[in-house]
Amino acid sequence: MKKLVLSLLLLCSTSAYSQLTTLNPDTVCYQTNGSIYQVTNTPGVTYTWTVAAPGVITSGQGTNQIGVNWSAAAPGLIPNAVSVVASTAAGCNSPASNLNVLILQIIPTIQALGPFCTTNACVPVVTSPAGGVLSGTGVSGNQFCPGTAGAGTWTLTYTVTQGGCVFTATTSVVVNPTPTLSPISHN
Hints:
The chain is mainly β.
């Protein structure tokens, strides 16, 4: 009898259902369609996952790992977005393990510039939020230099990286050629 009780206690122990660690809340980039969530696998255990709407489980229900599509989720915090319960054949269930999810969206901006002439001086480019990287033809640091860019229509890109997510904004800048004159001559 003692062996049977000990076996049932072992089967119903919840200490075997440890979760792999991640920060809570988990940060997911806006419109992400492929996030993976997992807990440590324990043989003989079935895992029942739930995901808060509008998240959709795309794979793995019943296993220790699922795929989730968050592409329809609005930016912001989703409390208890991912939840899992472990169950044994003996009918024992673990307490639920929950994870909040932050759908992160940053909207970078670049203030419109130009038009310029190729002889214009470099001008600062106003971007937000701070901390991003400005790139493109004629860009030097946080300035646009029409003479360096030359005549044409150029695309500037401002990239902000936060929480593993990358967000970009672009703008077009027109640089017109400066006319050249020949020396004045007298006939």
